[in-house]
Amino acid sequence: MIVAAALVTYAAVLAVVAPRLLREAAWSERAPRLAVCLWQALSLSVLAAAVLAGLALAVPSVPFNINLAEMLQACVVSLRDSYATASSASVAGSGLAVVAVLLIRVAFCATAGLLQSARARREHALKLAILARPAPALGAVILAHETAAAYCLPGRNRRIVLTTAALDALGEQELAAVLAHERAHLAGRHHLALAGADTLVRAFPAVPLFTVARREIGRLLELAADDAASRRHPRLSIATALTVLAAGGGEEVGLAAGGPTALGRVHRLLAPANPLGLVRTMAGGTLAVVLLLVPIAIAAGPLLGLGHTLYCPLPAVPPPAS
Amino acid sequence: MHGLGALEAAVMDLLWSASEPRTVRAVVDELQQRRQIAYTTVMTVMDNLHRKGWLRRELVGRAYLYEPVRSQEEHSAELMGEALAHSLDPATTLIHFVERISPGEARLLRTALTRATRGAGTQGFREDASRPGQRHQPSDGPT
Known about the structure:
Number of helices of chain B: 5
Distance between the termini of chain A: 27 Å
CATH superfamily of the largest domain in chain B: Winged helix-like DNA-binding domain superfamily/Winged helix DNA-binding domain
Oligomer: heterodimer
Strand content of chain B: 5-15%
Cofactor (chain A): Zn(2+)
GO biological process, one term (chain A): proteolysis
Strand order of the largest sheet of chain A: 1-2-4-3
Structural class of chain B: mainly alpha
Number of domains of chain B: 3
Radius of gyration of chain A: 26 Å
Shape of chain B: elongated
Strand order of the largest sheet of chain B: 1-2
Distance between the termini of chain B: 45 Å
CATH topology of the largest domain in chain B: Arc Repressor Mutant, subunit A
CATH architecture of the largest domain in chain B: Orthogonal Bundle
Transmembrane segments (chain A): 6-22, 34-59, 91-115, 287-311
Number of domains of chain A: 1
Strand content of chain A: under 5%
């Protein structure tokens, strides 16, 4: 019970405090990939704490004992105890229910999201196959359209799509920078990180942490792709391409929310590159690992208990003497 | 997307450039000028395109006459509309280079860029991106 309460408190505090700290952290723009890892670790840590809290209620914590026979005995006793009375059984039962609901919900939302995006991408790829003409020299396909746009279709039918208006509007250097940016998205499998964040938003829409994490991961992955492109191409070319393509031209179709991202990216690209130093990057990586380990550490008792419970010789053991 | 997608594209291109509806036979004859292809393959592809709503057909005599339901431009416009509106989907389908912004924000971006390119001249910024005659270049750049 204490362990479950500790886990719930940990999850609640983390879900409220951490997004504020991380979202306003100036260093995240200097190390976008590290920041993505931290958002992922944070989300996973909160989810894990909630699942483990349920588990802590369902499984009694058995003190570790070097004598296996005694420990098994203790585990049988404590298991019996925790399901002996109606009230303790209902606590344990609701703990199990929490675990089941959380895990099933995440699994369901992940599957539904993956299937939905796979279908949408397949349909999009089929239409592109008919409508767009391949440009092997660019490693992209060209769609005739008066709006200047560039995007990538990730997954099995991965490809980069440019409109004819984008080709006209972009200079040679800028076009190369755009292609490098999109290739970075595809090579980095950024769609999987987005799918993971999407899953949590879909599964728990009422948890603001996951919504913020999704938005931040989307923004940070753009910065990461900008960085990847800037290794081969002048930062000014990327900034110019951003300015050209954000304006789009042509008629307005589907104006996306979150315009400030474009402005932030341009300002970031116009300033000289300023990556985070090795020491601080390592510290951030360590923090991500710690975030993942804390709920497991808090729940160590019940987790060990679960391990024992699996080996608990429950039916065979006679009731404890005395 | 070789194979089926490529053949669908070839058939649609042919019917889009044709001035009148065509039979499967006529399409096969034209395709065969470029490559060896079986009648039944083309028939299957055209039947699929009909089923998916790309082609409409009409029985004239003993053969179907096929024609595109909509122009290539209409299809492209619809596809781009889907692509640009994708951010409304709950599941991420595409990743855009940059989201579309309002004209006001676009002006802000151009101002930032102009200021940077002007300032960059003194700092030795690489300016190989700007070319004369490029219509979206916000400034002439330091030369």
